[in-house]
Design goal:
Blueprint: H1 18-36, E1 50-56, H2 62-74, E2 81-87, H3 92-105, E3 109-112, H4 121-129, E4 134-137, E5 151-154, H5 157-171, E6 176-182, H6 188-203, E7 207-214, H7 219-232, E8 238-241, H8 244-256, E9 266-271, H9 274-282, E10 287-290, H10 296-307, E11 315-317, E12 322-323, H11 330-335
Parallel strand pairs: 1-2, 1-3, 3-4, 4-5, 5-11, 6-7, 6-8, 8-9, 9-10
Antiparallel strand pairs: 10-12
Helix pairs in contact: 2-10, 3-4, 5-6, 7-8
Bound molecules: beta-D-galactofuranose.
Beta-D-galactofuranose is lined by residues 60-61, 63-64, 138-139, 155, 189, 217, 243, 245, 270-271, 291.
Amino acid sequence: MKQEKCGKFYFCYKHFNRKKTILLSYFLILIFLVSCSGPQKAAPAEKDLIVVGFSQVGSESDWRNANTVSMQEAFSVENGYRLIFDDAQQKQEKQITAIRNFINQGVDYIVLAPITMEGWDTVLTEAKAAGIPVIIVDRMVDTDDPDLFTCWVGSDTRREGDLAVKWMEENLTAPLNIVHLQGNIGSSAQAGRTEGLEAGLQNNPEWKLVFQAPGDFVQAKGQELMEEVLASGIDFNVIYAENDNMAYGVIAALKAHDVVPGKDVTIISFDAAHDALKLVLSGELNLDVECNPLHGPRVRSIIEQLERGETPEKFTYVDEVYFDSSNLTEDIIASRGY
Ligand code: GZL
């Protein structure tokens, strides 16, 4: 068919049918998008990724969620890892199952955040037999064979308890009638903070423990226990909550009973999560002892040492401080990673 002139180019639409026009449009759009995407750093090939199986306690607290995010950010594909994440929903048996699954999948490393100290020897022996290094994060495991894990990274929770007691001795006027809300019984976090308070009770005759119960580091349990204390008529003037989320529950219960948190009663907490530090600034929380959850980079550094054939420190303790109205500012809160 004779081509009709149409300006400079011979373009006869009726011959260049609709389908080809659409395909050409898509092709041109694709070329444009690829050209705009800029240089792409090629993701490592799947076969070159270091595979890490991470068994996490659960998602019971701000601290735990910050810990999870820190690990997920550290063990990203861009960083050369494939993270297999398992949330045990606060059940040790789920953690044990997860570790066995990691072994069956032939992961390169296992990272365990153990809910309690006891009950790990059998499954850690299985991991050792499979030749898979295990790194423990956060809480401790209690084992007769220290070769069952390669390294541990976490906090000295007894020191955290001692810091809280020292602050109480320096800032509170006895007599103290203390309500004690504990974390997961049998976890090293609970054990350390409880031991610190118990030492304080031993050394201060005018301190009295008027209530003690486990709140499992969970906000709802903290509120429930505080409601129980308020209903009982127990006389108290200090609440020692072993984490921020239980302290949130305590504050909610106190407010519901027109008790002014941080003023009518002193509230001591642990973790120093963002929202809790805001409560220290507002005066509703009197002391928050830091427990840093940002273990991702620390564990990644250990694995990279192991990959280089080096021997990392067996135990790595995280430096921590405490916050009260005298040393906390909005800028400090804004500068923190959790
Ligand atoms: C502390 C960690 C505790 C936090 C809680 O090392 O194990 O578990 O203090 C968390 O907030 O639930």
